[in-house]
Amino acid sequence: MTTAAQQQPRASFDTWGPWALLAAGVVAAAISARAVGMDRLGTVASAVLVPAAVVLQLCWGRVRRKRPGPSRTGVCLYLLRWAISFVLTWANPFFAFYAVTGYYTAPRELPPRLVLPGLFLTAVTMSGSEIGGWPPHGPFLWLGFFLVLAVNMGMVSVFTRYTQQEQERARVQAETIDELERTNTALQQALDENAALHAQLLVQAREAGVADERRRLAAEIHDTLAQGLTGIIAQLQVVANAPDLTTARTHLERASDLARHSLGEARRSVHNLAPVALAADGLPEALKKTVAEWGERAGVRAGFTVTGTAEQLHDEVSATLLRIAQEALSNAARHARPARVGVTLSFMGDEVTLDIRDDGTGFDPAAVPQRTHSGGFGLDGMRARAERIAGSLTVESEPGHGTAVSARVPLVRDDR
Question: Which are the contacts of 128, defined by CB distance < 8 A and separation ≥ 6?
Answer without folding.
Answer: 89, 90, 93, 134, 135, 136, 145
